[in-house]
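> forwarded from #structure-qc
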């Protein structure tokens, strides 16, 4: 007990430190030789800032996910991105609220897996919405797990999200997002090593009377093979086109009705001849039966063909396309 200071000695020591009479070691370096420890596993800059194309993918993902979820739920759904961050995988797992639905999916042809997280409150809101509820009654989440019916709703929601996410990626690289399994405990997800860096994309989903969070995690090791493509700044003219609107207009154009007519021949007559015409008169055309005829679409010449018959009906067989002059 001889090493234990008395109260008087403690008071005297504190007084000496306050008046500067007792030296302290606050100015000593943190490590021998004055060196500073450096964590080589830590990125000097957040990884997502080095990949601007990921931001473009997120914007296009929002553009297609809103109508996708709205059509599936039968209600107006709004989706917005709240945060994009580069964190260690173990730190991300510790930040997840429980319960959460952890959906692991594969990114073909890339190696590795990625993670889609639906927070528990969002899952129950989707269940309520799919069954015609109004999300007015709060759900007690403590100690709650997902029932088979809720698991089916999760599966359907994940399918919609991955389908739209795959479409958003298609302008950059053709990938196939394949769901593999669902977990509740983060330690069993295992999409990355604990100290590996991941890019966490956090989204807010508004279901009218409720807002919930969804997160998509991309391990850096999974995106490494296409890192250069993700670092591009979208200078390609093809990538500048909004593919969603392009497909919409293409579908609309392809479903339009087009008037087609064939010119079998022409003849020039005077006004007097026209007024004097009667039933039974014959007008010789300037074209013989075996001559090619012009096929017009909406009044514009498009094809050349030959007159004939098909199934006992008059028909025209297209021979070639009329090129631009």
């Amino acid at each position: 007990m001889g090493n234990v200071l008395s109260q008087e000695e403690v008071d005297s020591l504190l007084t000496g430190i306050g008046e500067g009479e007792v030296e302290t070691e606050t100015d000593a370096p943190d490590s021998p030789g004055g060196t500073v420890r450096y964590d080589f596993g830590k990125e000097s800059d957040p990884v997502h800032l080095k990949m601007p194309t990921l931001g473009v993918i997120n914007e296009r993902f929002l553009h297609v996910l809103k109508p996708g979820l709205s059509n599936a739920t039968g209600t107006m759904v709004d989706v917005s991105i709240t945060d994009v961050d580069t964190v260690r995988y173990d730190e991300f797992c510790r930040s997840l609220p429980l319960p959460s639905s952890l959906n692991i999916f594969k990114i073909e042809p890339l190696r590795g897996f990625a993670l889609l997280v639906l927070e528990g409150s969002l899952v129950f809101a989707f269940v309520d919405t799919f069954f015609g509820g109004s999300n007015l009654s709060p759900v007690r989440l403590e100690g709650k797990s997902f029932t088979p019916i809720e698991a089916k709703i999760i599966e359907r929601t994940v399918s919609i999200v991955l389908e739209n996410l795959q479409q958003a990626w298609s302008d950059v690289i053709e990938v196939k997002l394949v769901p593999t399994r669902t977990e509740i405990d983060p330690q069993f997800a295992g999409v990355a090593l604990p100290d590996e860096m991941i890019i966490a994309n956090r989204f807010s989903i508004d279901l009218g009377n409720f807002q919930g969070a969804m997160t998509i995690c991309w391990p850096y090791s999974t995106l490494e093979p296409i890192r250069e493509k993700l670092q591009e700044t979208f200078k390609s003219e093809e990538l500048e086109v909004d593919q969603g609107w392009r497909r919409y207009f293409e579908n609309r154009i392809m479903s339009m009705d087009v008037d087609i007519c064939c010119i079998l021949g022409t003849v020039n007559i005077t006004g007097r001849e026209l007024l004097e015409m009667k039933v039974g008169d014959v007008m010789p055309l300037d074209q013989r039966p075996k001559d090619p005829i012009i096929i017009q679409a909406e009044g514009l010449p498009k094809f050349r063909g030959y007159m004939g018959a098909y199934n006992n009906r008059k028909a025209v067989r297209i021979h070639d396309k009329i090129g631009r002059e």
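QC bot note: The two ends are 108 Å apart (CA to CA). Residues 52-73 form the longest helix (22 residues).
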